[in-house]
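Q: How would the structure tokens look for this protein?
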Amino acid sequence: MKPEGKFGYHEAISLVVIMMTSKVFFTSPSVVMKLVGTTGW
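A: Here is the predicted structure in token form.
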């Protein structure tokens, strides 16, 4: 983060990537259950 407290280009890209990957992993546990059954847990 810059000393002024503003987000730079790299921080914004990192935040977007983290949000997208967390959404992929945590939004659909029911799909995981359908694919692999109880082994997914």
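The radius of gyration is 16 Å.

The helical segments are 9-26, 29-36.

Upvote if useful.
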